[in-house]
Amino acid sequence: MKKNIFLLFTLFLITLSSCKKVIEIKETDFIGGDIALKSVLNNEQGIIGAYAAMNVEMGILLNSVFADEVRVADFYNAATVHEWQYASTDIGLRDNYTAFPLYYRVIDRVNRVLIALPTATSNGAADDATKLRLRGEALFLRAFCHFELYRFYSNTAVGTDLALAYMETPSLEPQARITVAPYFVKLKADLAAAKLLLPNNLVDINRATFLAASGLQARIALYLKEYNDAITFSTEYINGIPLSPRASFVALWSDLNRNELAFKLSRTPSVGGRIGSLYRGTSAATTNIGAITWKPSDKLWDSYDKVNDIRFAAYLKDEPLLLTQSRSSTRLIAKYAGTGYATASENVADAKVFRTGEMYLIRAEAGAETGNLALATADLNTLRAARITGYVNVTLASKDAAITTIMDERFKELPFEGHRFWDLKRRNLPVTRLLVDAPNANAATLAAGNFRFLLPIPNPEIQANKLMQQNPGYTN
Amino acid sequence: MRKFVTMLLCGVLAFTQVSAQNRNIKGKVTDDKSNPVANATILVKGTTNGTTSAADGSFSLSIPSTAKELVIRSLGFGTLELPITATATYAVSLKAASENLEEVIVTGYSREKRTQFSGAASLISGKVIETVPVGSFDQALQGRAPGVLVNSGSGQPGASATVTIRGVQSIQGAGAQPLYILDGIPMPAGDFQTMNPNDFESITVLKDANSAGLYGARGGTGVIVITTKKGKAGATNFQYRSQFGVTNKPDFSALNLMNTREMLAYEEREKLVGTPGWTYSPLNPAIPAGSSAARKAVILDSMGNIDVNYTDIFFRQGISQTHELNMSGGTDKTKYYMSAGYFKQEGIDLGSNLTRYTTRINLDHVADKLTVQFNTTAGYSISNFAEGEVLGNSPRNPFQMTYRAKTYENPYKADGSLNFGTSTQLALRQVANLLEGIQNSQRNTDQIKLNSGLSLGYKILPTLTLKNIFGIDVAQETQERYINANSLIGSLQTFNSGLVQEGNRTTTQLINTTSLVFLKKFKEVHEVEAGGYFEVIRGYQKAIGLTLFNLDPRLNQTGQGAQALPVSVGQTTYPQNASSARSGFGIRSFFGTLRYSYSNKYSINGIIRRDGTSRIANEANREITTWSAGFTWNALQEKFLKSQNIFTDLRFRVSYGITPNIGSIATSGYGVGLAGVTNYQGLQVPSFGTTAYAGSTIGGLAPTTPGNPNLAIENIKKLNIGLDFNVWKNRARFTVDVYDNRTEDLFVSQPLSGTTGFANLNINAGVMTNKGVEFTAAVDVVKKKDFSVNVTWNHSINNNNIEDLGLVNEYFLGTFVIRKGIPYGSHYNYNYLGADPATGQPRFETADGKETFDIAKAGQFAKFGTYLPKHQGGFNLEIRYRAITISSFFSYQYDVVRSDNTRNWITRGTPGFHGAVRASRELIDGQWQKAGDIKRYQSSAFDRGFTSSDLNDAKFLRFRNLNVSYQIPQIKTNGGTVLIKSARFYVQAQNLAIWTPWKGIDPEDNNNISLNEYPNPKMFVMGLDINF
Predict the structure, then answer these.
(1) Of B277, B697, B708, B891, whose CB has the highest number of CB atoms within 10 Å?
(2) Contact: B910, A266; criterion CB under 8 Å
(3) What is the DSSP string of B747-759?
(4) Out of A4, A29, A49, whose CB is closest to B583?
């Protein structure tokens, strides 16, 4: 019996001795608190984390589906967005076009780096140089993301003077929307500061460069109708990177060269995903081409000189293999087709963010707007000559004719790159689909200035943030 | 207890009238299986005159002629009172103690007399669950106890039910399951698929602060205490138990889906672009490329003749069987119960099944002042899932495809092989792809489960007991997912050649409780019990996971032979495909209990405790002190009630206390393959995770949670008032409880503005209340030797309300709103008013009560009800005639509204939805077509979205279980040797019928929305129990 008591007593002692530590058990396996952004390398990892969250695919699909670049193909399950029937709770918007948290997430990531960077432990000159570059990238990404948010949710052309909140530091507090003017003061300041710190070369265009900043400045100036700035910055870009030779233009889209590019988002099958799958699923075999969600609109298809315009071959494809597969059509969007059907990199392509072609069209439009029709004509002709075999120069008779021609050229030069819907919005034009392209007669036209040109502020955001104002036309 | 007191009183009276005339009687005491019971006490009622039974159960006793009744008692058995007649020989058959559950409440730490118990507890006999053919026993608890909401979300064999005791008490911990205690050792809620419920003797649900208070911070959402079977002194009893059963295919007819002809006609009528009904219609002038008008007609006609019944293709009749052998017995000092079991159940979903092997040993030993209890169970289970079921909302989920797949898709080629490949609206291959996926994928979880506890008690003094309980609970899970390389589904994986994912996780929990309890009775009427407890709990988790791609097409279901991974052009790094993590937590508690009882009439008790846990990051908030107190009044002990003869029992209970709720502290996780490890502090400290950008060789780092350093433990203030009363000589027994629970410092997952870069943050800001009434009744309508009728019924009402949310007034969670002043789980949606007769556009209510056609202008409302039923209950009718017993059990829930996502899809009526799902027949007559139509559903040219039109009443009355059994009498050889002591044969039907207005497959679910339901299947089982 004494043994028993001894046993009990021993157990009791074991229990007592372990009790002090038991409520102080720490999580050992996670990166958090003070250690996360400790060194310069950790900060660089933080910036890479921001690039990892970067996304232009959402805008690419939006500008196709909400505008007139695509039509319904094998499967159609996007009625509310394709037919403009969305409210702030729309599931189609929620699942595919929630730019709000997406870009603020990138902004939060770079803001954390901007705070940690000054005190990050540095191992000498190389680290000090990296610190400057990282600061430049952080400011560039902050500006880029705020501009994307503006493109989704705001635009003075369609009746709101409100931009969004410009986040310069991580904060959990509710933020109010600010007006467009102070928003762009901050945005331009960030960009100007970034430009001086970014590498002024094209060694690594998977990350931000000096010319990427020029490209963004040109694009912003165009949206803000600050046409002289648009000419200045697009010229900077054009002088830095020429147009692609026609012979290598198609290869640009399968990433065999990097013509025209100052900044792209690198994509692999496992990291970043397949842009091409926005329009067509991956294939099981060449005899079994993936399901086509969107095919090119007849409007776009018929706009090209199919023989001489290299852009037709680069962007679109008439696929005879589909004839034998009981498909609704043989037309495909091929811009991001990647490697062949049923191969590892099918539908994989880098996301091109800035391209010389766009810069020519920015300068042409700015030229027309500032009364410099000669500049507009020259840029349009240069671009077309680079794309079309046997191209004969045209003259632009008036500003209006120039603008119409340049808008049509943007439609042909930049489809599936995230411009069309926003171009129509910024110029206050309607979306006009051909009847054959429209899913039904009600969804052929979105009138100019319709409130749905601005996406609704997502309902969860309205709920979470008392200071948030909904866009006109939507209840919360 | 009342009987005991009565007996004492009678005893006092008896002393005054001792009679001279005695006679001898004799007899034999046996249990219900005819085993002799040794050491049973046989007393003449009201006297101290008695004896004990011998080893063979026999006894003899001299009794006075005035003696009227014998009282026979034995440990582990109920008390039997037997009238004394002229005969001199008595056969006494004692029933096992489970019949006697009402007398003792097992709290896990102690066994309390019912008369001294002030809390609210429901007792469920192991009998109601042990034959029910479900893999996880918690599913069988539905409707069995008031205030305990048990809803099963899946008919997957072995799936756990969601158990909610007295309403959702926490927003953050809304899904937090009660604490399960198995013979004193805690056990996770989700592991019961590897437990044999036949080993369970009884289940006690502790619902109020006082009874659950012993568990402190772990018992916030209630405690379910399971006691397993014990051996009885006497001859060794063997029992063999077996079941054989079938599980029926589900019935999808409630969806009222169109057949092929109807679908093609509908597509033609609505001119739905891209559909075969319109594409091949003679009314459609367009001729597809490479076709002709004649060819169109041929295709349309041949398609119209295909009408596949997908229920037959996707589902099967599942077979289930169980075998079990147990033995029990022992001596006065040492008793044992041992069992070994096998359980196999096939699901209705192809490829889903559960196989389980279990063993148990329970030892009880008493030696002088020492008591020892050793309970151990070990189990191994293999759960196979259909891959699609795991994927949820996916065209690879057969439950979803049953109403999505078009009946004109023929999944087979002429040679019988699957016609899989790229699916388009005109050449559907979805079903073939799904079947191909099922054939070429495997998803399973193997679990090894161990739960073991050793309890040592030592009586230092007659009044003082030192006790230590040490327990281990371990679950080791291997999760595997295989997709064959040489298949269509395999070709769609990254690197186009199959996929292997494996995860392995070990979850361990150790508990040690040391206590010193003083118990003494003074002057016969004052009883004092005081206890001091010290308890430490330590949890560990460790998991490893891996992913393999590019598998060897010659092999299936293995990672062996996997090839190196190709890299993209310019790629210099590659993401890791293996991961591991560990974590753990500790809980330390000191607590003291004190009880004083006066003459069994009044009893008052209190508990005070201090709990600390490492799960709170902030040291200042790590420990919390709480208390509870209870009072009970045994009214029939009062003199002024002695003369009444209505009540045979009347007790009043009240308890109040504060229970902290550790289970609601939100955690984050480390993603580890298929397994995952809990990060207990991840949401309280700003944390970072790794990420990758293909454009850099440097790994990315990204914040994952913003952190909230101020987080404290939320606590629930619980008040319970209860009344128990029996009338009609205890043949009618009633219990009523009312409660008022108030959760304070409620964790509010405050949604954050998108500008923060995060979705939400947990803060202690809210107050939530649950108020309710619970009622149980049990009536022995007929109680005769050969014939008895017993009816039991329980009903409970719970009213939940969110009183305060701190800074915010409301926020959203899925399809419902969390709003001050309304119950948790209230649906929040647009109010759909039907189609506009003139234009067919959808009509919605605006916030100011007007109408609009544009959903962007419509208001959202919270007036549609909640998905948590306000009323629930169950009733059981048991009829026994001689050896035949028929027991039928019904459960019901009402005042509940669920969102029917399936119905939304099949009645959406737009080209987009019609392209993706098979529509309901309701659209044929219910959809607007031309001006003047007054219809519920809008024109196909417009969309009405996800609105109130799909919020439906989900009340139900379910015929949950029917059991007909026949007690086979003893079987002897010619020579008189007992071959079989007793046996029972039964047939049983589970989920036999349901009555509900719900138009989906199964109104019962554990969530707010119905989309991919694995319905609770109908099962038929026959079983045999043999004692030998």
Answers:
(1) B277
(2) no
(3) EEEEEPPGGGTSS
(4) A29
CA angle B349, B350, B351 (to 5 degrees): 110
Nearest CA in chain B to A41: B698
Q: What is the pTM of this model?
A: 0.77
Task: Read off the pLDDT of residues A44-96 as tens digits, 9 standing for 90 and up.
Answer: 999 999 999 999 999 999 999 999 999 988 777 667 899 898 988 887 888 88
Distance CA B9, CA B322 (A): 51
DSSP bridge pairs for B537:
B511, B587
Q: What are residue B296's DSSP bridge partners?
A: none
Question: Parallel, antiparallel, or unpaired: how do β-strands B810-813 and B816-819 relate?
Answer: antiparallel
Enter the tokens of residue B494: 């990254």
pLDDT in tens, A363-390: 999 999 999 999 999 999 999 999 999 9
Rounded to whole angstroms, how far apart are CA atoms A208 and A141? 8
Distance CA(B130)–CA(B566), nearest Å, equals 54
Distance CA B272, CA B917 (A): 13
Of B116, B77, B131, residue with least CA distance to B210 = B116
Alpha-carbon distance of B939 to B270, in angstroms, equals 9
Q: Looking at this protein, which amino acid is placed at residue B754?
A: G
B453 vs B363: CA distance, rounded Å:
11
Shortest CA distance to A282 belongs to which of B548, B422, B569?
Answer: B422
Calpha distance A375→A406 (Å, rounded): 12
Chain B CB within 8 Å of residue A32 CB: yes
Smallest CA-to-CA distance from B40 within B61, B67, B9, B68 is with B61
Q: Please indicate if any CB of chain B lies within 8 Å of the CB of A83.
A: yes
CB-CB contact of B447 with B476 (8 Å): yes
CB of A53 less than 8 A from some CB of B = yes
- The secondary structure element, H or E, covering residue A300 is helix A298-301
Residue B76 has a pLDDT of 63
How far is residue B314's CA from residue B401's CA, in Å, rounded to a whole number? Answer: 9
The fraction of chain A above a pLDDT of 90, given in percent, is 70
Give the CA angle between residues B774, B777, B780 to the nearest 5°.
170
In the numeric block, which tokens belong to residue B705? 């949670």
With an 8 Å Cβ cutoff, is A413 touching chain B? no
**Token match 């990350």: residue?**
A207
Q: Read off the tokens for B854.
A: 């544009």
3-state secondary structure B274-289: CCHHHHCCCCCCCCCC
Q: Please choose, from the candidates A268, A316, A265, A267, the residue with its C-alpha nearest in 3D space to the C-alpha of residue A292.
A: A316
Q: Whose structure tokens read 């120069």?
A: A393
What's the rounded Cα separation, in Å, for the pair A296 and B30?
86
**Closest by Cβ to A86, choosing from B758, B808, B856:** B856
3-class state of residue B507 by DSSP: strand
Cα→Cα distances B537→B455, B533, B584, Å: 16, 13, 11
A positions 144-203 inside 8 Å of B (CB): 164-165, 167, 170-172, 174-175
Please give, one letter per residue, the 3-state secondary structure of B760-794. EEEEEEEEEEEEEEEEEEEEEEEECCCEEEEEEEE
Interface predicted TM-score (ipTM) of this complex, two decimals? 0.90
d(CA A233, CA A243): 16
Inter-chain residue contact A28 with B946, CB threshold 8 Å: no
Q: Which of the residues in chain B have pLDDT under 50?
A: 1-20, 98-102
In 3-state terms, what secondary structure has residue A107? helix
B607 in Cβ contact with B593 (< 8 Å): yes
Alpha-carbon span B893 to B870, nearest angstrom: 8
Chain-centre distance of CA B688, in angstroms? Answer: 35
Six-digit token string for A48 = 């890479």
Q: What is the DSSP string of A48-89?
A: HHHHHH---HHHHHHHHHTTTSEEE-S----HHHHTT---TT
Residue position matching structure tokens 């997709």? B483
